[in-house]
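A reminder from the course coordinator: this example appears on the midterm review sheet, so study it carefully.

Given structure:
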């Protein structure tokens, strides 16, 4: 059984709502309409699932630690009561081929916008250009969100940039201020790949039926966990514990559920802004997070590669690069752009 699955979300919510405070079994029983024996049974079940609950005679129960799981019991209480991403639209799976594939299947079956699919492990995680996404079970934050935006198909590319911006904002908020965005769909930490974004859609010529955005973020992943061929180019938050200025000298990596909920909050806010105001506001914030203007880059296209200077992003979200060979400004619509 997965940690948290089948546990009472009501008891867990009460314990979470009283941080640092012991709640008596009698009071909990009255509030939940069950006996003290039933409360003790639920407490033991939570403890078996990995929750650290302190029990003191005459005082009651106090939640002192939680397992880093993405189950509905762990995440749903943290989601807002209104808005885009709601508790009843959240779905968690132990293992799956790809969260994007699952979200697409749900989209085709009529699932609403705001549906979120997470998994502890993806057996066939996918990245852009057909690349594989490698992550040991439980080490990464892998999820997909379903949108039904009222935009033409050619603008769905901008939602990838929006997701990158929201994820960067989430990590900056958590203290990882050196995270930058790599056009169009990666996040970097100290120059190494930390996260990837894959956007897929179902559309006709002039109408978008659904957009699915998949995110893979290395959270507890360390370099040693990665395949040898990726160790020089990829990284995880666990490799970069930041100094906190206290006696410990370091800060623990945030739980995945908190990073997920923070991302959904940031994305919902930017998405609302995007639908109301267009891409202009997103563009300025993206450039600030990317820190790419004026940097030397290598552009790899299908038929050629060249180096140059990243000068700007146009109104549609495509990168403008001044070529080193002839000084012309190239509008990069597709391909890989790498900082030199």
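Designed residues:
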């Amino acid at each position: 059984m997965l940690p948290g699955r089948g546990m009472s979300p009501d008891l867990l919510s009460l314990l979470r709502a009283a941080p640092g405070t012991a709640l008596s079994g009698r009071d909990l029983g009255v509030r939940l309409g069950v006996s003290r024996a039933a409360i003790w049974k639920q407490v033991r079940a939570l403890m078996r699932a990995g929750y650290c609950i302190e029990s003191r005679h005459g005082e009651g129960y106090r939640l002192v630690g939680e397992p880093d799981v993405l189950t509905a019991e762990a995440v749903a209480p943290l989601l807002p009561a209104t808005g885009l991403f709601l508790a009843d639209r959240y779905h968690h799976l132990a293992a799956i081929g790809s969260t994007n594939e699952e979200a697409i299947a749900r989209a085709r079956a009529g699932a609403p916008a705001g549906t979120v699919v997470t998994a502890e492990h993806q057996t066939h995680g996918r990245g852009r250009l057909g690349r594989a996404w490698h992550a040991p079970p439980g080490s990464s934050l892998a999820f997909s969100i379903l949108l039904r935006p009222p935009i033409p198909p050619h603008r769905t590319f901008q939602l990838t940039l929006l997701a990158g911006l929201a994820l960067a904002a989430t990590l900056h908020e958590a203290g990882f201020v050196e995270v930058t965005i790599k056009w169009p769909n990666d996040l970097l930490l100290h120059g190494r790949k930390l996260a990837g974004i894959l956007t897929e859609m179902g559309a006709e010529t002039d109408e978008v039926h659904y957009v699915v955005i998949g995110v893979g973020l290395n959270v507890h992943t360390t370099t040693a966990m990665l395949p040898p061929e990726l160790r020089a180019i990829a990284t995880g938050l666990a490799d970069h514990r930041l100094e906190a200025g206290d006696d410990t000298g370091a800060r623990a990596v945030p739980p995945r559920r908190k990073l997920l909920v923070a991302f959904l909050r940031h994305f919902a806010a930017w998405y609302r802004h995007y639908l109301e105001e267009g891409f202009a506001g997103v563009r300025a914030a993206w450039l600030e997070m990317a820190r790419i203007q004026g940097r030397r880059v290598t552009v790899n296209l299908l038929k050629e590669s060249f180096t140059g200077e990243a000068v700007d992003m146009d109104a549609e979200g495509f990168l403008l690069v001044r070529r080193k060979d002839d000084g012309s400004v190239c509008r990069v619509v597709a391909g890989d752009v790498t900082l030199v």
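The first strand starts at residue 52 and ends at 56. DSSP finds eight helices and 14 strands in the chain.
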